[in-house]
Amino acid sequence: MSNSPSDAAEPTGDLTLRTLAMPADANPAGDIFGGWVMAQMDLAAGMRATEVAMGRVVTAGVKEINFRLPVKVGDTLCIYINVVKVGRTSMTLDVQAFARRALTSRREKVTEATFVMVALDEAGKPRPVHPRTA
C-alpha cells in the first residue's frame, strides 16, 4: 500500500455519490472490481453533468484512470466531482473516488479520472449545454 502524499490528499469538488461496496461487487480476494468503481464514477459524473446541462447527457470519453488502492467489501465509496470546463455542447469533469475504510474514519483516494460529457437534445443530437430560453 502506498503512503504517498497524493494518496492522503483531501477530496476536492462536490460529494456527488456515496455507496457501500458489497460482496457481490468483489473478486474472490475481497477486492472490489475496478469496473464497478468506474461505473460508480460514471454514474456520479452523469448526475453532476445533468445538473449543469439541465437535461440529458452522455459520457463521450474517459481520460486515463489509474487504480491506486483497492476498495474492499464494506468500504464506503465516495465520489467527488469538479466541473473543470464547460464548452458549447460538452463539459469536462474531474472525478475523484475515495474509500472510507470499513469501521474506521480513514479515507483514502483510490482512483481519479477525467470524464467528458456531452449534452443531448430529445433526438439524441448534441445541444448547447445552456440552451437559450424562448
In a few lines, what is going on in this structure?
Belongs to the acyl coenzyme A hydrolase family. This protein is mostly beta strands.
What does this structure look like?
GO terms for molecular function: long-chain fatty acyl-CoA hydrolase activity. Residues 11-123 form the HotDog ACOT-type domain. This is Acyl-CoA thioesterase. With 134 residues, this protein is mainly beta. It has one domain (14-119): Hotdog Thioesterase (Thiol Ester Dehydrase, Chain A), CATH 3.10.129.10. The chain is 15% helix and 40% strand. A five-stranded antiparallel β-sheet has the order 1-3-4-5-2, with helices on one face. The longest helix is centred in the first third of the chain and has 20 residues, at 34-53. The protein is elongated, with a radius of gyration of 16 Å.
Q: Provide the helix percentage.
A: 10-25%
CATH topology: Thiol Ester Dehydrase, Chain A
Distance between the termini: 55 Å
> Helix/strand/pairing class, anyone?
mainly beta
Q: Domain count, please report it.
A: 1
How would you sum up the global shape?
A: elongated
Mean pLDDT across the residues is 91
Q: Please write the CATH class name.
A: Alpha Beta
